[in-house]
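Narrative of activities, Objective 1.

The group set out to show that a structural description can be obtained from nothing but a protein's sequence at a throughput compatible with the screening campaign. Below is one input-output pair from the validation batch, recorded exactly as produced.
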Amino acid sequence: MDYNNLTLPEATEIQEDLRHKLRFDRPDAQAIYTIGGADISYNKDSEILYAAIVILNYPDMTLHSYALATGHSSFPYIPGYLAFREVPALLNAWSLLPVRPDVLVLDGQGILHPRQMGIASHFGVLTGQATIGCAKNSLYGRHADLAPYKGASTPIVEGTKSIGHLLRTKEAVKPVYISPGYGLSVDKSLEVIRQCTGRYRIPEPTRLAHNIVNDFRTGKLKPGYHEVQQPLSLF
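Output recorded for this entry:
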């Protein structure tokens, strides 16, 4: 898959086409025993992207395995078009997994996007994988003020329709933006992320993916698929 030479109008057209393939009612996505987290890292001014997908047992958040791969992208970083830069590298890591997780959490938006096509939605449509977007910043939608305590949430709406949730995962710390990518409902996505929240602002699947992919980028970890026999010191 090569998005490098796309124009923005062409990328927008792809998003409009993919959005018609979205679904949020996959019955097999309701029973969750494993959950994945995906993240990308790169060096400034480099076209090489480092991708990590981690697999954890759910809901106890025990790290089971992870896959590491690289990709190449010259597509620019533009809000709303993150998938065109990062999805190809993530697919390289995805292809290394012998067993896929029941749900995959991606660092970015799901349907909290002007065309419902954040990176989690884009990846989900392409793979048929149940996905959730967990973003650190707002891109789309309106919401009420959020209480300051851990666990507080409020719907994010488009008109009168709920398309995601704002969730405070740590007291007096900035919240995260949760939305379904593919295969799950808005409420189920929130429920899953609540179960993945520990001591940190970022839920465990994407937090661990972030840690691992940065160690991969700096040469501390090797590419390929790895099963975890014991806890890794970087956690």
